[in-house]
From TrEMBL:
A single MF term (Gene Ontology): GTP binding
Gene3D superfamilies: P-loop containing nucleotide triphosphate hydrolases (3.40.50.300)
Single GO cellular component term: membrane
Protein name per the record: G domain-containing protein
Organism of derivation: Jimgerdemannia flammicorona
Amino acid sequence: MNNSGIFYKKRATDEEIETFKKFLTNYQVGDIKVADKTQLKNQSNTIRILVVGDVGSGKSSFIKTLLRFCGNERESKFVKTGEGSTGASDTVTMRHHRLTDTATTNYFICDTPGFPETTLNQDISMMTSHVKRYVDGYIRNGETVSYLFSLTDWFFGKRYADSTMDAVIFIARPPLDGKYRMNDRRLVHLKKMRQELEKTLGSRPFFFVITATDYIEMAKEDTAQDILQVFDGSIFIVGKEEEGRCMPSVEVYTELMKGVFGSIEEYRLEHRT
Ligand SMILES: Nc1nc2c(ncn2[C@@H]2O[C@H](COP(=O)(O)OP(=O)(O)OP(=O)(O)O)[C@@H](O)[C@H]2O)c(=O)[nH]1
Ligand SMILES: [Mg+2]
């Protein structure tokens, strides 16, 4: 994916939003990658996309903006975002949001509480196990989530067909400190997190997204370049609209969602669930 538009400054126009909305309303699973839809091993018309990330990374803000760009202002208003970092997650329950404002489509973006801050390897693999738990349908819409939950209890849990996830988006903030210098500890943490998630998820569609790109623009040129390079192949977005700074771009959001849908289609050519 090309990152030339990452320091985007314009506010989204109504036309751009209308175009994205139209795409979503007309979209059917298979449209992007599949010539003959009977080839799909999983022909469900429902898509659930899981959004995970560390506490306060910007998951809810990304979802709020995405829903607005999908033309679903009403649902967007529902999404609560954080006021600042208190260490605890502002989102405490699993929440499925339908992308479109009518029930003619079944595409959902699913918000989760943030992972508690950690740098321990052991904790990272613990968090990725929780992601697997989400993907496999152990956590239902509206359910309160605790990452303190012991994973051994997992095996006594129940899987729900209406709660499995088709793709995973990990949302990360750029690894910068208060002065917009590289924060090496955060950098290492994110690299490990990405590696560990790739390992856990296998062929399941997985997208590593750096949000709050407006912070990268505040960093020195070489620091900014380092981040763009380390996370090459990731998607860079902005979750919050703030006049005068980089703004969320409908084009980037559309490209991301088309990428997600396309990967899900490819996955469904090979997998039944
Ligand atoms: N500058 C800037 N701030 C952002 C951006 N996205 C989110 N924020 C801010 O970051 C803080 C946390 O955002 P949330 O969207 O609540 O983060 P979250 O990942 O949902 O947090 P939890 O649910 O608590 O884990 C809020 O103060 C947001 O306004 C962004 O793109 N740019
Ligand atoms: Mg949140």
